[in-house]
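Z., the sequence and structure:
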Amino acid sequence: FKVFGLIESAEIVRETRDGRMLDVEITLSDWVFDAIENNHILTLNRQYFLLRKPLERRLYELARKHCGAQMEWRIAFEI
């Protein structure tokens, strides 16, 4: 089986005297970096974060993924 992560590595660079993190260095995985460089990242409308119910958020995510910049998207529901 295959495992991957969004973050390749992370390191605390500087801490306060009481051990709290001040600076952290994060290395993104090649997959994430390539997706960002090639503009293959879906954006979310700011109003998405105002949706409180999990079903509302999931419906938005599905519509955003499948519609993209299209004016409409059709699916069939079997009841």
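The radius of gyration is 19 Å. The helical segments are 30-37, 54-67.

Let me know what you think.
H.
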